[in-house]
Amino acid sequence: MKKEPSKAQIERGKGTLKSLTIVINVLYALMIFQAFLILPRPDDPELQFSTLTQIYEEHVSTLIVIAIGLVMVIIYWIQFNRQLGNLVRSTPAHASLTILQMFCLMIYLYFVRIDMEMDGLKFALQMQSVFLAVAGFLGAYNWMYATKNELTSDQIDEKEEKTFLLSSLPEPTAALISLPFASISPTVWTISFLVIIPLTYFFKYLEKQKIKAASN
User: Fold this and answer.
1) Other CB atoms closer than 10 Å to residue 29's CB: what's the count?
2) Model-level pTM?
3) Whole-angstrom Cα distance, residue 207 to residue 211?
4) At 87, phi and psi to the nearest 5?
5) I want to staple 138 with a disulfide (CB 3.0 to 4.6 A). Which of 37, 101, 160, 174 is the partner?
6) How many whole angstroms separate alpha carbon 14 and alpha carbon 162?
7) Rounded Cα distance, 56 and 98, in Å
8) In this structure, are residues 33 and 96 in contact, taking their beta carbons and an 8 Å threshold?
9) What is the number of alpha carbons within 13 Å of residue 78 lying toward its C-beta?
10) For 155, phi and psi rounded to 5 degrees?
11) 134 burial level (CB within 10 Å; 0-12, 13-18, 19+)
């Protein structure tokens, strides 16, 4: 039999949720800022104004990798705020999973920096795929944990909970699919992320099928 949380636990959970929201949003903002710091800086002694265009032309694939990273981090940030927007409290397990997801995203950015410095290192690309996928699936699992343990508000129904879960799966699935393409080339690896487009439609199709089955 499932044990109901005490009033004291509920109160602590509300406080944990507020603290978690502040900390994670600050970390996301710092990660986005850090992504821009990876770019060549004007104060770099090797960077001359006359060669600025040439430097960027020679690192187009790397800059695209950074752009993908920014887009994925922002998507995860939006998903995180959507999650917390429908939560009324947190638990130590929920907070730990959230912090672990952030840890994976920070490691992902670490490998983006390595990729920038090593110019398309295969291992760096593979690790980017791995940690993007792990971060995304952790977020999806954490949402499942929140709904199962009644951390969500009464304003969101079961159908919306399942819809949100499915909408959070295209990005980590695309990252996982991109993993073997890192062995081919940085360009092919980058292009492989376009699979996110059909994946988005696929999970939307699954969502419609679940709604249709529930109404029958």
Assistant:
1) 11
2) 0.84
3) 6
4) -105, 150
5) 101
6) 23
7) 35
8) no
9) 10
10) -80, -15
11) buried
For residue 162, give both structure tokens: 């399942």
Tokens 């672990």, located at residue: 100
Would the pLDDT of 133 be above 90? yes
**pLDDT tens digit sequence for 185-195:** 888 988 899 99
Classify each residue of 34-53 as buried b or exposed e, where b means 16 or more C-beta atoms within 10 Å of its C-beta: ebeebeeeeeeeeeeeeeee
CA distance 35 to 65: 11
The tokens describing 133, both together, are 């996928």
Tens of pLDDT along 62-112? 677 778 888 888 889 998 888 888 899 999 999 999 999 999 999 998 898
Q: What is the C-alpha to C-alpha distance for residues 88 and 37, in angstroms, rounded to an integer?
A: 36
Identity of the residue numbered 176: L
Phi, psi of 121 (to 5 degrees): -60, 130
Tokens 């109160």 found at: 11
